Amino acid sequence: MRITGTGHASMRIDTAAGSILCDPWVNPAYFASWFPFPDNSLLDWETLGDVDYLYVSHLHRDHFDAEHLKRFVSKKATVLLPEYPTSQLEDELRELGFKSFLKTKSDEVHELDGGLKVMIQALISPTDGPIGDSSLWVEHDGVRVLNQNDARPTDLTRFNELGHVHAHMLQFSGAIWYPMVYELPEAARTAFGKQKRDRQFDRTWRYIDDLKADHVFPIAGPPCFLDDTLWQFNDIFGDEGNIFPDQSVFLAEYAKVGGTNGIVLLPGSVTTLSDKSAETTHPVPVDEFFANKQQHLEEMRERKAPVIAAEKASWRHPEIDVLGAMKKRIEPLLEESLYMAQGVGGPVRFDLTDSFGPDGEIVESIVVDFPGKQVRPYADEKVRYRFKTGRALIEHLIHIDEGDWVNSLFLSCRFSAARIGQYNEYVYAFFKCLSEERLQYAEGWYDEHEKAVEAEDTVLGEWTVQRRCPHLKADLSRFGIVDGNVLTCQLHGWKFDLPSGRCLTSVGHKIRAEKTAE
């Protein structure tokens, strides 16, 4: 089996029975804030895109690059389609010209021509990607690969059942806006960032230990930030609170916990994998490349500046009545929302500026009033959440009829945020679901989730607790850590006060727990 690194979470897997291209991403994503790093735009994509199979793990735009898929990937390729609750991924791929689809069943092995075997595990909670994330398992001639990318399964049991895995590809770096965009004192932002960075690595070590693959490939990040207003997010300033460590940092941290089997794939790196070995060649020495990271970034920044400028020129649509358009789009969804609206529990305010981010002058303030089921001008009241961003960005979202503001505005990091109280997952879940199909699915999922009874227990120190985390069902016998009276689920970092059962991280999600009898 031959694995060619093609950047970020993308790779091409070649076997004697066929080739699979995974998650090709080249063009900037999220309002031109994210770029692949190392740069992969100079690869021979005409050749790389001539494949038998295409796998797009989910709809995040650093995995689903519509422009690149349309231009460079063969429309003769059969799409390996995850089993998602909505048809959006398939619909968008069909619009790009793909016609052949293998609609997989989650956790079910499918045997293709020539003895090539694949299995896709789909995650389908409203907080997994844009309603869906997935992992791809591949086997040919006794060699097995798991491309986990940035999916977060509660465990890897199903993959272990299929036999020893020889190569494990997984995310290790940040892919979020927290805590950088929050209006916090610098010391607090650094402390929260360090916690998140450490938690990312802890989660990665647990997945690696679960699978015990022969070789581990850090993929799916980090992106780089080439716009001057976002440049500080690159991990080149010695900031221990930066959540975007790169592959060289991964190798150093992995070594601290005894990891010696890590392999970095630069764009153009090729690993020849067997059941006994992995031989890798690189276009340039890996250590040398990352030693000159800032120089590479500065060169990219200069080269990509016209791309960013062209993107920005397309965002302004002053003819759009933002308040009227938001009312038309959001108010019918508020009327239909039960769980998410109750979960938000208060008004959310958007301060819109005259710039392309939070630094300009506020020109309009709009409230999405969840209890009142309306969108209206801000009336100087207290709000649960406040977002500050460029009016042009909201204009553009309305112009392109974007139904997922998380997979666009929030991941762009072109905003600032403030909140009263705990993190509230329902705020972000709702703004992923600005369409009838997504909203109905998410409401149904929360309905089923809230009514679920957790019967099985596990013992953690002096406490007996329900085995599955109330957040996203992680197995607390593996991911749970108790410190005094506080339980932390390390899969997503959620915390619970055990004596009361109260979630300390977000609204709702009470846990069942009691002191173990002595």
From TrEMBL:
Organism: Paractinoplanes hotanensis
Gene3D superfamilies: Ribonuclease Z/Hydroxyacylglutathione hydrolase-like, Rieske [2Fe-2S] iron-sulphur domain
Protein name as annotated: Rieske 2Fe-2S domain-containing protein
Residue span, Rieske domain: 465-518
Transmembrane residue ranges: none
UniProt keyword Transport, yes or no: no
Keyword tags: 2Fe-2S, Iron, Iron-sulfur, Metal-binding
InterPro entries registered for this protein in UniProt: RibonucZ/Hydroxyglut_hydro, Rieske_2Fe-2S, Rieske_2Fe-2S_sf, SCP2_Rv3818
Domain of life: Bacteria
